[in-house]
Design goal:
The protein has 514 residues and is an all-alpha fold. The chain has helices at residues 8-15, 18-28, 38-48, 54-59, 68-85, 92-108, 112-128, 132-146, 154-191, 198-211, 222-238, 242-258, 261-265, 267-283, 287-302, 310-331, 339-350, 357-374, 377-388, 397-413, 420-433, 439-450, 459-471, 482-485, 488-497, 501-512.
């Protein structure tokens, strides 16, 4: 994935729908003086361009080089104002902010009573929808106005506002601490992945315990509970406690079903919660609930009442298709999952500006695993190359490490082992550099390196030895993470039993059905 510079204004214009472009032109043309405005001419030019070209803009004569930066900034602002006025974007959060803006204008005009009336309605709306940050802002403005608009009830009113401010402040502090903790743990996951040893575990445990605030769950509102569940979920995932991650992801999703109005107000958190629930179900191999959860998520996203915008469409594409791949991995139905490759490739192209490189590489790794399970090793290698050759990927070191290990196995299976020794050395050095050379990887590399000295009739015996060695690590606190990225044991069993790897996984799935 190339890291090409994209002009922010150009990307914004290209993200607009036909109706949004039409509304922008109506918004600009509301006053006759804007009909020939330079920024509208620039908008029309950029809209027609297939790629951003500043030379073409200057050649058009619309603007001089010294003015282009200011004109682009002005156009960018006008598009945002137009989008804000679009009914599609008028959610509760924007409506509350709008009321706060109106109240501020009335206050500045000295119309205190009118301002307080609007603020009271906005505060009720904010509290009802768990928007406690803006509710705190409203209370603070009410306090300012009350000091200038003296009424007979000011002593009682002062106490009431002081109590509201104190309570909201306490809730916001807890939310801030929990959201900071959640973000830091998520950052650790992106950087390194699951804990690799006692040192990693102790580091994560110390960080979590020293930063989690004291609270009573029954005293928390929707928003605070949401961040508490998120923080505990990330801690559970990092420490590979997948039963715990399933528990907290379930609490997260159930919180939305207990407060269904919050699904429409916080669709992104709803989607993410379901994604992590599905990921946890995948790790604990709870197939039946996985299918039910995925079906329920797809049904919710397809509901006409569910919010629709570019960000939600991108996340829905990412989470639903990623978990559809996981379902085929769970059931060993690799051949039936191949149709997803074209859908995912199209989606990556369509949503490319809104999906980060890390998630794109994760999709590529899953596609590579799909082809590996299907026995199409050349396509598996092709997708792994997209990850291995990505020099700009500075996160999820474990993903880069296991991409190289899977590539080695795929090259062996494809009979492309003429450069295997060079790749082995390269992979070995990379794992050492990343401090990720552990028992499972060592045994795999040792086995692949010895293949040149093994006679064909000895091969099955060597596979058995490797299987016996790796089986010991299947439930190891840290080594088991290797099997999350590549089902090495099923691959070895397919050589021992003379069956396709997909059949081995299907048979295991039937036995493990819960």
């Amino acid at each position: 994935m190339t890291n090409v510079h994209r002009d922010a204004l150009f990307v914004l214009i290209k993200s607009l729908s036909k109706s949004e472009k039409r509304q922008f032109k109506l918004y600009v043309g509301r006053l006759g003086v804007n009909t020939d405005a330079k920024f509208l001419a620039l908008f029309n030019l950029l809209d027609k361009m297939k790629a951003y070209d500043e030379e073409q803009i200057l050649d058009s004569g619309i603007v001089k080089k010294t003015q282009i930066s200011n004109l682009k900034a002005h156009l960018y602002k006008q598009i945002l104002v137009s989008l804000r006025l679009n009914p599609v974007n008028q959610n509760i959060r924007i409506q509350i902010r709008e009321q706060l803006d109106f109240a501020t204008i009335l206050y500045q005009k000295g119309l205190y009573k009118q301002s307080l009336k609007i603020l009271d309605k906005a505060k009720s709306m904010a509290m009802e929808h768990e928007e406690k940050n803006v509710a705190y802002e409203i209370v603070e403005l009410e306090k300012v106005i009350e000091t200038q608009y003296i009424t007979r009830s000011i002593p009682d009113r002062a106490d009431e506002l002081a109590q509201q401010a104190k309570k909201l402040s306490e809730h916001n502090v807890i939310t801030s601490k929990l959201s900071n903790l959640s973000l830091q743990l998520y950052g650790m996951m992106l950087k390194v992945g699951y804990v690799r040893n006692d040192e990693d575990l102790q580091s994560v445990k110390d960080y979590f315990e020293s930063h989690v605030p004291a609270y009573k769950l029954e005293d928390l509102g929707f928003r605070e509970k949401l961040w508490a569940y998120k923080a505990h979920l990330w801690y559970s995932l990092l420490t590979q406690d997948f039963l715990s991650s399933y528990r907290y992801a379930s609490k997260w999703v159930d919180l939305f079903y207990e407060n269904e109005e919050m699904i429409l107000l916080n669709p992104v958190f709803y989607l993410k919660g379901n994604h992590y629930l599905l990921e946890s179900l995948f790790f604990v191999k709870y197939g039946s609930q996985f299918k039910d959860t995925l079906a329920r998520l797809e049904q919710q996203v397809a509901d006409p009442k569910f919010p629709q915008n570019d960000n939600i469409a991108s996340l829905a594409f990412l989470y639903i298709n990623s978990n559809k791949l996981n379902l085929h991995f769970l059931e060993g139905t690799f051949d039936k999952g191949l149709y997803l490759v074209k859908i995912i490739e199209y989606g990556i192209k369509k949503h490319g500006d809104r999906i980060d490189a890390h998630h794109v590489m994760l999709l590529y790794y899953k596609i590579a695993c799909l082809y590996f399970g299907h026995g199409d090793y050349k396509n598996c290698i092709a997708y792994l190359k997209k990850i291995i050759s990505n020099k700009s990927l500075k996160m999820r070191e474990d993903l880069m490490c296991f991409a190289r290990v899977l590539s080695l196995v795929a090259h062996y299976e494809a009979g492309m082992d003429y450069h295997l020794e060079v790749q082995l050395k390269s992979t070995y050095k990379f794992l050492l550099k990343m401090n990720d050379l552990h028992a499972v990887q060592k045994e795999m590399i040792k086995f692949l390196r010895s293949l040149g000295d093994i006679y064909p009739h000895e091969l099955k015996n060597e596979f058995q030895k490797l299987y016996n060695e790796l089986k010991k690590y299947e439930n190891h606190p840290y080594e088991k993470r290797a099997f999350l990225y590549l089902d090495i044991l099923s691959w070895l069993e397919c050589h021992l039993e003379g069956k396709p790897v997909a059949q081995i996984i299907r048979e295991k799935a039937l036995l493990a059905t819960r």
